[in-house]
Design brief:
By secondary structure, the protein is an alpha/beta fold. The protein has eleven helices and ten strands. It is globular, with a radius of gyration of 19 Å.
């Protein structure tokens, strides 16, 4: 049985964490399969958007498998810092999802249930997040003597108010879906039976647009957040010039003039 399932339907990939008996916690095998799934999505031209979700209806992911982690930590403490399981996962491949890399294709997290620790870090690495009312969120690492080392300390304060981010990071408490929505951590709260439909509806809307323009838009936006406004404008201008030379940039206006749906090729 695969611990990460990958399905491509037209231009939308669905990546499902499939370890429901352990709340889709990350063990070594799941991390390996997850890395392979995202690499498959990145390198498949037909795949324009991905929905990331968890199987079982109880959890998106509860984060790192602490049972496996504790077994690997049986050696006596050392003065030399030891990376967490997620950090080691990143160290093997800097292009992996948690680190960001060049994943400019859009990602949507469909969250139902626990979204904790590395699970929340995975959701934070997505561009859009939809959740059910019963979902709970948290970066609980400090309660276990470690830190949110999969991007949590960096992404969360960039997404929500600093005071709210620090409360989540320093207390390790669980946050309700209502709080997450109020702080802007998630986009929408939807009933469980509408979660995947909502995610798919938004994914289809994104996938219907020119894929190169979508990726360039994501890249310009995220790169611009890390630099000053003027440098961000330069990034935007540079990418705009590249997109202006694509076949899709001619197809869009032509389709409008001919009153038809554009046929984007990603070229």
């Amino acid at each position: 049985m695969s611990l990460v399932e990958y399905e491509l339907d037209e231009h939308v990939a669905t990546i499902t964490l499939n370890r429901p008996e352990a709340h889709n916690a990350f063990n070594r095998e799941l991390l390996r399969e997850m890395r392979d799934a995202f690499q498959r999505f990145r390198t498949t031209d037909e795949a324009r958007v991905a929905i990331v979700t968890g199987a079982g209806g109880r959890a998106f992911s509860a984060g790192m498998d602490l049972k496996e982690y504790s077994q690997r930590r049986s050696d006596p403490p050392s003065d030399k810092p030891r990376p967490s399981g997620v950090s080691r996962f990143l160290a093997r491949d800097p292009e992996d999802l948690f680190a960001g890399g060049n994943m400019w294709k859009p990602l949507i997290a469909a969250i139902d249930g626990y979204c904790l620790a590395g699970g929340l870090e995975l959701a934070l690495s997505c561009d859009l997040r939809f959740a059910t009312p019963a979902s709970v969120f948290g970066l609980t690492e400090v309660t276990r003597g470690i830190i949110a080392g999969g991007g949590g300390t960096q992404r969360l304060p960039r997404m929500i108010p600093l005071a709210a981010a620090m409360e989540i990071l320093l207390t390790g408490r669980h946050v309700t879906s209502d709080e997450a929505l109020r702080w802007g951590l998630i986009n929408r709260v939807v009933p469980p039976d509408e979660l995947m439909h909502t995610a798919r509806e938004v994914a289809n809307a994104i996938a219907s647009n020119a894929p190169l323009a979508v990726r360039a838009t994501k890249e310009a936006t995220l790169r611009g957040l890390d630099v000053g406004f003027e440098d961000g404008m330069r990034i935007e201008a540079f990418l705009s010039q590249i997109i202006a030379r694509t076949e899709d940039s001619r197809e869009g206006p032509l389709a409008f003039a001919e009153k038809r749906k554009p046929d984007y090729k990603g070229r």
